Amino acid sequence: MSTHTPHGRMSFLSGMPLRFIAAGILLINGMFPALWILFTSLKTEVELTAKPITWVPHAPTLQNYMQAFSDQPLHIFLFNSFMVALLSTALTLLVSVLAAYALARLNLAYRGLILSLIIAVSTFPLVTLLVPLFEIMRALNLLNSWTALVLPYTVLSLPVCTLMLVSFFEGIPRDLENAAMIDGCTRLGALFKVVVPLCAPGVFTAGILAFVNAWDEFLLALSFNSNPTLRTLPVGIQLYQGEFAFPWPVISAALVVGIVPVAILIVIFQERVVSGLTAGGIKG
């Protein structure tokens, strides 16, 4: 016999419109900016400035995309951003996996203090770290190189990735590692052959977060690299505007080109990312 009362069903149904409204607001908030940039990239300058505003382009054109590649070396910006993001992501995952495993498995003194410091460091505004990081890169003679961005991006992504992986590693039974070590694996071997594969959703999620953070970062990329051939995409896009001209259709086209790689990455790994975020939220 059903235990649901009429009052309970009425409460559930009365809440449905609110749920749809909330879902609609979230959808509009997430999709509208992206759609607006896409539509702008397909408009001419005349249509963009016409009154009244046209939401959907009447005569879509790809001329803005061709101009985005001809006005600036957009392909170089994309390559630099991809390599910097890829290298920093790989380094972030390597270090965060080792750090998270140590915090989750080893009997470290002051473990709570270490976790608290990691959380505290992750809250520092980037602008407060700009000058110290710049001085360090200059002292190491690393300015105007990929390394000048890879190392800071790794440091900035480490706290979040480490905390995320700690919760995943703590959910793996120790017996699995012990069995692997009895079979001849070292502790590192057990980590990379047993623990990491079992925590694949968490590792993929941490990797996506690190990649997106490096891909989108602007302040350090602008400050540490003055070499035109090493500019990343966020820095390169701001070069399209002139002193008195703002070619929004061309800028929008460049933005769409920059969004596509990240969108493809998320689509490919969306199942692992969603499962990683869900599992991390439950375990956290």
Task: Tell me what you see in this structure.
The chain has helices spanning 6-41, 45-48, 63-71, 74-105, 111-122, 126-139, 147-170, 174-182, 187-198, 200-216, 219-224, 233-237, 248-268, 270-283. The longest helix is centred in the first third of the chain and has 36 residues, at 6-41. It is mainly α and 284 residues long.
Annotation keywords:
284 residues; mainly alpha; 14 helices; 0% strand
Biggest sheet: strands, sense, closure?
A: none
Give the low-confidence spans.
none
Number of helices: 14
Summed over residues and divided by their number, the pLDDT gives a mean of: 84
Distance between the termini: 37 Å
Order of H and E elements: HHHHHHHHHHHHHH
In brief:
The chain has helices spanning 6-41, 45-48, 63-71, 74-105, 111-122, 126-139, 147-170, 174-182, 187-198, 200-216, 219-224, 233-237, 248-268, 270-283. The protein is an all-alpha fold and 284 residues long.
Secondary-structure blueprint:
Layout: H1 6-41, H2 45-48, H3 63-71, H4 74-105, H5 111-122, H6 126-139, H7 147-170, H8 174-182, H9 187-198, H10 200-216, H11 219-224, H12 233-237, H13 248-268, H14 270-283
Helix pairs in contact: 1-13, 3-13, 4-7, 4-10, 5-7, 7-10, 8-9, 10-14
